[in-house]
């Protein structure tokens, strides 16, 4: 389904980095959900570049909700949010139009679109499209929060420096909501930021790992084949540019465990069924088991670096040197964090709607 | 879409571990593709238990193609393959019906299905359902091979022991096709098998990592949002029981690289555009770039172990000790390998059909 | 999506007229719904040929539910129902393999499938596939009836003879449930049957119109764009072989009305909002308004007739005379009626599940 | 999928009658198709109100293509077209907010959306949304015309007056393309227009029947179950407001034919396989047979009339009289005609893409 994702609740994404408007259509959302534009703006702010560790292209992100919201509430019909591109310098890209930037989609896009693709600033492939995605995700989070479902993502590691893990989940998620640079241990955050600055100073970039926790999701959500929570979440997460790995619970570390260690034993706690450990990340057989959902995404280092690189001119099929100019992020892991939250929120709304109906999200 | 997956080409899976028949419907497949039942049987054989390192439940897997194949060729209409369950011992499960086996879907399924689920042998959640999946995957592989697209998966590590990586990809994939225990270095295979036997002897189980390579896929296949090759493949792969992580190319290791290292520089080789390294696993911006597709799946240790475990009776909501009896696999990583190949083949057929049409697969 | 239809609840159909088994997978159905096999058998019986007015191929329709039902109830996982083809005479079709039977799909199928299609008895195009469709529809009707939603279809006209219209809807639907030949006025039924016999005697066939009413559907079901009740129902109804027209409420007759006549004025009756007339067939803007859903399907005369016809050999592209032999229905309108009910029931379950969740159907 | 329709190629519709912008996203379209904005504007003009026989709300329809088109060609990524609402008089609707306009969706919408729906001018249900639909349809028609596939719709009857039927199809379609009032016999057009004026003068409205022909569609397009050409086309057509019936070829008239009359006999003409009659409307078994596709849509009379009507206040659940004010169409059949063409074009592009791939539309 390409640029549309989801079943009962779906999103459709459109736009290009230097086009007139970028936007998203969120469909299937229940009527009567209060839409707090300040909340959306705050989520967008978390995606915006930060000083020296980000690109110089700072977009004001003046979003407009042009349909599906009336008198402050969702109407139940498709919500379209538009964001104009205001700060574009397309000339930066003209001279390198047919030079494949290593790590970027340029050459793959050329193979697919035959030279008709909008090459300016990455076109449709640009991380810029995550801005409308965040507006849709913010609306989804507004609805989930009313249901007691909370999502938080932190930078588990970046530039080789690791944050502490989740401890008190509710409190950690709460703390992350207000942080521009999403680490649990803020002293670590300072170190990561200076490591990013260091890489930027060297004309290079860094990657990282984002770790996400979801609390409050009822047990019984997800499908065995093929719409497992893991399957649908990963499908959406891998759409976020630069994500190259997704793991749930213990993930790749489970490969080296024994069953006796990896199995999460069950217990009864205050009348509720819980597990002692949570190596399965709150998901068994593709279905939520009532424990927090836990997953991690590997974010590759931003491909746009200022160091000279070897590449090809794919039109003339000949080797070239490439020196990228323009404005670029030396790291996107801190900006991607709210995108991960957004995508997660949209997927969970859809999965909940499948089981409980689209009306479910407005019930109190 | 739950038990149906895919767009232009789709699969629908049904059945339970101890039900009368399990099966799959493969729809959208081009007419005129020769269906070699011996080839399908051979793929099924790769999934079958091996001596001491597998369960004692050995199923003959007498598959029957009951529709969509006529006079030895696909007709273009839905192909249904049925496999009867012949070797079932349902009584093994009766006494523990409401005891949640740690690491298994029992409790999550109960939350979802309210006690109506078929609990015998894992019911619909059983790895048994990967048998029909393999028959569909074998048909998909038959079509892909005619197009020069080859898929190979090896046990990259198991029980903490690592196989060598892919070297000469074509030759390695060829070699794997004929191996019952899919390692590239057969001396490593011997060590892994005895480590599995050791774990089995201790009433325990082990996990591992499967690594897959695909050669011959044309550049330009996949979508930027949301049906990236990574997104759709991971969606399907996470449906395979026990898979808890999926990474493409460098995957999680890329998180600690710098951009200058992670970026795959482009070059021209014999007139073709290639990359020097393949950290992106043959995928940029969600789209194939002509290099081999490379990914790895983390397989958790089989949750069924003979050691006593702490758990709960979820009907009475009280804590219990669980001693699993019955017949179980101390490792499934070697059996899962052909399932990964199958799922990959089905996804690639669908992605190719989207771009080139359902007729594409029969063209020569 | 071809042979799979539906979103929250879907059906997948497979098989050929002379294949080993035909079947259906019904997915997304709530767990805990009692499955009454006698009820299913009774619905299948309504589809079976009747004496002189039907084909001589009488199939016992020994259906087997091979998955998704356990201890008499749905499990919530896909329900597969298989029906073997037992009474086949494939030789009837060999000599005419490349002769396009007028009004049949033979030539169109050849254009699509390139000669690989199973030509015997119409293959995958055969009305025979409506048998599994009826089993799925019966399960859907079982669930709907528990919710107070009832569906009834009568032969509004056949061979040019008209039945009376619906009067007391609840009572009429009740009466139809038990009738092998579905007319509201049984004296008309006698006349229609003898008109069919007459056509059969002349080696010819007749068509008709089926009219369907649904009572008890809550207001608010359906979508404005594009999944209107009319849109989704018509999509499914046109899949039934021989249906060439679908109209809701006043349908084509509304084209000649004035707005003042066609508009259904609203009133309050016993506290409920109702309309005086029901020219809109219970649907406004694609959404149910609480009045009975009303629609009609045009069924073309069965294309298999014994009279000699002009046609072509599409392999050799030359004109030929065709004399159809074999066993054929001089009318199918009376057999199609339960298929219309079935398709309607499946669509309504899906539309209800979208709004209220898949769990809705099991709630009491 | 609600407001998204289509598989390989899909459209997503959003907006409300009095909202800021209405729009459409067309996804899956091949890159490299020239987008002629004048052609789109011309199609939009065919939808615009005409003098006395239409509403006084004349919108300039200043459409903007904000994504997916670059340097005059499609890029292959989603095309978003926006149209602002400029001529709105929302106050007309305030006083009657809870009065159900007979024949309109007001009450059904209230049942579905619980009072959160945007009631102004019909909100999301408004025929106004067909404007973006026409822009998407125009792009689809541009692509189809390059492939030699042409679509034409005429007013087969309106206000009880019948146009002549199609004769020379190619020439008739050509003639219709340039006509603001789409009749084949222009003297009939004059009569119909004065009949509409007459109804308008009486504060009433009229309906009609639209007949559509498609030439040049290759044989072999469509699916037996469930995505028959009839099924998918009708699904899309019933989304157009006011359409209450769809019939293919002979349609309802076939119900009274005998098989010997209804069957279209085959012949060879200049080496091509053709049928003598075309009662099946170019479709057998859900698949195109190479003959022109022919169908008719019943358009009910516009529900907004100035005559006083009986209705209810659905908030207070009490009976009221309703006198509609505002600006309304006494007939929409002539404006709906280009919407039918549009929807048809989009569906055919999708069906062609399924079989031949999304790349097909740009090949020459």
What form of chain A results from the Cα inertia axes? globular
* Strands in their spatial order, largest beta sheet of chain A: 1-2-3-7-4
Can you write the helix and strand succession of chain A as a string?
EEEHEEEEHHHEEHHEHEHEEEEEEEH
What is the strand tally of chain A?
A: 18
Structural class of chain A: alpha+beta
Summarize the largest interface: chains and residue counts: A-B, 111 and 110 residues
- Stretches of chain A where pLDDT is under 50 for at least 5 consecutive residues are none
Let me know the largest β-sheet of chain A: 5 strands, antiparallel
β-sheet strand percentage of chain A: 15-25%
Average pLDDT metric of chain A:
94
By oligomeric state, this entry counts as homotetramer
The level of helicity of chain A is 25-40%
> Over the alpha carbons, how many angstroms does the gyration radius of chain A reach?
21 Å
Number of helices of chain A: 9
Distance between the termini of chain A: 33 Å
What are the main properties of this structure?
homotetramer; alpha+beta; five-stranded antiparallel sheet; 28% helix
How would you portray this structure in words?
Chain A is an alpha+beta fold and 364 residues long. Helix content of chain A is 28%, strand content 23%. Chain A contains nine helices and 18 strands. Chain A has helices at 37-47, 91-94, 106-113, 130-146, 169-177, 186-201, 229-237, 259-262, 333-356, and strands at residues 4-6, 10-14, 21-27, 64-67, 69-70, 73-74, 79-84, 150-158, 161-162, 208-215, 243-248, 266-269, 272-275, 283-284, 287-288, 293-299, 309-313, 318-322. In chain A, the strands form six sheets. In chain A, strands 1-2-3-7-4 form a five-stranded antiparallel β-sheet. In chain A, strands 9-8-10-16-11 form a five-stranded antiparallel β-sheet. In chain A, strand 8 (150-158) and strand 9 form a beta hairpin. The first copy, chain A, is globular, with a radius of gyration of 21 Å. The model of chain A has no long low-confidence stretch (mean pLDDT 94). Chains in contact: A-B, A-C, A-D, B-C, B-D, C-D.
């Amino acid at each position: 389904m390409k640029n549309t994702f989801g079943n009962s609740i779906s999103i459709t994404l459109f736009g290009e980095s230097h086009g007139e408007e970028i936007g998203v259509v969120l469909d299937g959302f229940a009527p009567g959900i209060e839409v707090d534009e300040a909340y959306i703006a705050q989520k967008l702010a978390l995606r915006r570049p930060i000083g020296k560790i980000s690109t110089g292209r700072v977009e004001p992100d003046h979003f407009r909700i042009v349909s599906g919201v009336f008198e402050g509430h969702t109407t139940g019909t498709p919500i379209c949010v538009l964001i104009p591109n205001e700060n574009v310098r397309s000339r930066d890209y003209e001279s390198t139009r047919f030079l494949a930037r290593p790590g970027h989609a340029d050459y793959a896009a050329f193979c697919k679109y035959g030279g008709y693709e909008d090459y300016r600033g990455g076109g449709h492939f640009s991380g810029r499209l995550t801005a409308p995605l965040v507006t849709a995700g913010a609306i989804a989070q507004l609805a989930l929060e009313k249901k007691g479902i909370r999502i938080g993502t932190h930078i588990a590691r970046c530039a080789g420096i690791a944050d502490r893990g989740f401890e008190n989940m509710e409190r950690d998620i709460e703390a992350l909501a207000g942080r521009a640079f999403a680490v649990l241990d803020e002293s670590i955050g300072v170190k990561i930021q200076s490591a990013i600055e260091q890489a930027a100073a060297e004309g290079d970039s860094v990657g990282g790992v984002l770790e996400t926790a979801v609390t409050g999701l009822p047990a019984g959500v997800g499908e065995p084949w093929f719409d497992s929570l893991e399957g649908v979440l990963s499908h959406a997460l891998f759409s976020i540019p630069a994500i190259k790995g997704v793991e749930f619970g213990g993930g790749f570390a489970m490969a080296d465990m024994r069953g006796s260690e990896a199995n999460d034993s069950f217990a009864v706690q205050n009348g509720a069924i819980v597990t002692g450990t949570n190596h399965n990340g709150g998901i068994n057989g593709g279905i939520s088991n009532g424990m927090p959902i836990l997953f991690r995404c590997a974010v590759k280092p931003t491909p746009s670096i200022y160091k000279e690189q070897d590449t090809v001119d794919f039109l003339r099929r000949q080797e070239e040197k490439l020196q990228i100019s323009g404005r670029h992020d030396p790291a996107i892991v801190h900006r991607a964090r709210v995108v991960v939250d957004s995508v997660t929120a949209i997927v969970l709304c859809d999965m909940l709607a499948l089981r409980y109906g689209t009306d479910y999200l407005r019930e109190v």
